[in-house]
Amino acid sequence: MLIPTNLLQDKRILLGVTGSIAIYKSLELVRLLTKSGANVKVVMTEAAKKFITPLTFETLSGNKVLDEQSESWADDHNHIKATQWADLYVIAPASANTIAKLANAIADNMLLQCALAYGDKKIIAPSANTNMLNHPITQANLKMLGIAHYEIIKTQTKELACKTVGDGAMAEPIEVFWHIAKELLKEDFWEDRRVIVTGGGTAEKIDDVRYISNFSSGKMASALATALFCKGADVNLIATKFDADLPLAMHKIDVDSTEEMLEFVVDSVRIAKKGKLSKPSLILDRPIELIQKEPFLFMAAAVSDYVPAFAQDGKLKKEMLGESWNIEMKQNIDILKTINKDGIKVVGFKAEMDAQNAKENATSMLVNKGVDAVCLNILTDDKSFGTDDNEIEFITPNGSALLPRADKLSLSFEILKNAKEL
Q1: Residue 364 lies in a domain
Q2: Quick one: 159 and 296 in the same domain?
Q3: Which of 29, 79, 312, 343 measures 20 to 30 Å from 102, CA to CA?
């Protein structure tokens, strides 16, 4: 997915790096953050400098590294001013040793002093050998941090530096990036709001090896779901295709046919309409129940208008079919018409090639489909599918707004601004 160069424009991030082999991922994380417009300063432990020199981080970030030797009280280069400067403090990688010290408020190095001095929420991405990570005391330390205003990014199961396969590898830089973006971009309107997004072109079975589909790439839906994730929504992406590098923490359901998509959409809408939203609690034995906000459905999937009337089992042989083959088709289920839209805001998507009648067709969809808004996308030809940018006209019963061409993630944020007014 194309990340806008202004996504984190002027956001100030203090990145702590510890003595772990996973520190090489921090270099990529700095690159991602700076390319998205963020201002990054790095604080290093002495153990971290055994793996990578401060000069490398200074080159990538454009800022002087804060460590034991460089701290100065003659200017702002110290652990108090650095934490006052930062919008967010992130520790990635966080070694088991650092996790233990954080949990016990020990501050015997620069990184730990910054952690104590920074009063707001902090994000850590652990990295450790499987046995070290799963040790009961380490697990207890992580739980302690969970109730002490730390967000902990899940580790991965893969081959570790010690050549064993197990849990403990630090999350990939792009996943840490999305957690950072979510913390910096979350918005009260969307935070914890249940939102369903559908995407991709459905695949309708002819036989066990053939199907009918369309050119929809699913990129717009993936971008929209990612924007919602960054805004703090409880988003569920139901799609036939997914863009690369989506947040792993975002809930996703992979489907193929219209029938399968309808089943999951109906079930997701039913769950979304429930009166309370449960959120895990690290303090209580039961989830925290939150006041439920009105849910949203963004129906961006390209659902087939017609499907084969008689899908066959096995593979149809050309010797049996002859020189020509006529496939009998029937009108498909209309998901937007089928679902119960009471108590949920619904935004439909309309792709048109007939530019002259496109807006009229999209506007009629408001009544015919009973939706609150329509995102109109006028296509020129089959090359319009799968592009990284788009142009949308956001149409409601009260009027319309043209959202200028932009990359699909930036455009998704503009769609969300308009959707708030529904």
Answers
A1: yes
A2: no
A3: 29
The number of CA neighbours under 13 Å toward the Cβ of 94 is: 31
Phi/psi of residue 374, each to 5°? -130, 135
SS (H, E, C) 327-379: CCEEECCCHHHHCCCCCCEEEEEEEECCCCCHHHHHHHHHHHCCCCEEEEEEC
| Residue 130: how many other CB atoms lie within 10 Å | 17
Which of 243, 199, 242 shows the shortest CA–CA distance to 351? 199
Instruction: Identify the H or E element spanning 181.
Output: helix 173-185
What is the rounded end-to-end Cα distance, in angstroms, of the chain?
28
Q: At what angle do helices 54-61 and 23-35 cross, to 10 degrees?
A: 20
Spatial distance between the Cα atoms of 404 and 210, rounded to a whole number of angstroms: 38
Residue 406 has pLDDT above 70, yes or no: yes
From the centroid of its chain, how far is CA 371?
25
Residues 6 or more apart in contact with residue 98 via CB below 8 angstroms: 18, 45, 91, 111, 112
Rounded CA-CA distance 210/197 in Å is 27
Does residue 277 have a pLDDT over 70?
Answer: no
Contact by Cβ (8 Å): 80, 37: no
Token reading at 205: 């079975």
Domain C-terminal end among 158, 183, 208: 183
Q: Return the higher-pLDDT residue of 312 and 83.
A: 83
217 and 96 in one domain?
no
Q: What is the pLDDT of residue 158?
A: 76
Q: Is the pLDDT of residue 135 over 60?
A: yes
Q: Residue 402 is part of which domain span?
A: 187-419
Tell me which residues are annotated as active site.
Answer: 162
- Domain-embedded: residue 113: yes
CA distances 401 to 366, 393, 415, Å, are 15, 6, 10
Please, where are the H alpha helices in 187-324?
219-230, 258-272, 318-321
Domains contained in the chain, number: 2
The encoded tokens of residue 5 equal 């160069």
- Of 348, 356, 404, 397, nearest to 376 by C-alpha is 348
Is the N-terminal amide bond of 308 cis, ω within 30° of 0? no
Give residue-wise pLDDT tens across range 299-329: 999 999 999 998 888 998 888 888 888 999 9
- The predicted model scores a pTM of 0.92
3-state secondary structure of 310: coil
